Amino acid sequence: MWAIHFLANSSMNKQRYLVLVINHGVPENLLSSILDGCKGFFDLPEEEKQEFKGNHVLDPIRSGTSCNVSVEKAFYWRDFLKVFVHPVFYSPTKPAGLSEISLEYSQRVREVARGLLKGISESLGLEGSYIDKAQNLEQGKQIFVGNLYPTCPQPELAMGLPPHSDHGLLTLLIYNGIGGLQIQHEGKWVNVCALPNSFLVNTGDHLEILSNGRYKSVLHRAMVNNKATRISIAMAHGPSLDSVVSPAPELLVSSKGNEPAAYAGMKYKDYLEIQQSNKLDGKSCLDRVRIPAV
């Protein structure tokens, strides 16, 4: 049976910011194998990784680096691998075995995500299958994101990823035991430490939109250190690319009267392209669809 812990929440608004899931049913050896497989990709010679570079944010496989040896100002210190794994499965052909492991891992994690979304639907007073059907999750976009944060000689001048929120509905994350994830809570940056073999779950922008702000997307960042290399794997779960995401109409009508929509609708594909084509900057992409209060 699953166990869910809320690592940060607002007692006033009942908005949950970060969730830790244990007893989720994904085998421990599969979690360790996918982390090892991801490390194997980052350990490939640079010319072999270049085979999977990709050129566009919607290319099914993209890898690259933002490591920078300049110390004149803050810079980003991260290698990445981004792969679309559903509704069509893709994978780098190297290293050997990565494709098979990532396929099994993707399928198992997708089951966990859809189970969580069922519970979220019910918490909003909707049918358990509401989000699944409304966002066409059978064709939903699932994106595997592997991150490598090498040891950094001057971590005070660098950052793995700047403050941002994720696109999509939910992101499930695991890492190799080396800390670095921070979330913003009540205006302060808080270190997040997970239990072994658990999933950290970030709520994304499109869950905030669909719930009309009842659930807030998590503002988070990745820090680096000079002692150990950190590897994380984030699995993003979003609607189908053609789904237009807007507040659920059922949440805009209640016995207390009509509630104004706080966000305009936008096709998920368009939102994803805008966010991934620009520098990560807080919730700047979400602000594009936010409707100012009258």
Automatic annotation (TrEMBL):
Gene3D superfamilies: B-lactam Antibiotic, Isopenicillin N Synthase, Chain
Keyword Oxidoreductase applies: yes
Single annotated GO MF: metal ion binding
Keyword set, alphabetical order: Iron, Metal-binding, Oxidoreductase, Vitamin C
Record PROSITE patterns: FE2OG_OXY
Record domain Fe2OG dioxygenase: where: 139-239
InterPro entries tied to this protein: DIOX_N, IPNS-like_FE2OG_OXY, IPNS-like_sf, Oxoglu/Fe-dep_dioxygenase_dom, Plant_2OG-oxidoreductases
Entry similarity comment: Belongs to the iron/ascorbate-dependent oxidoreductase family.
Protein name: Fe2OG dioxygenase domain-containing protein
Organism for this UniProt entry: Populus trichocarpa (Western balsam poplar)
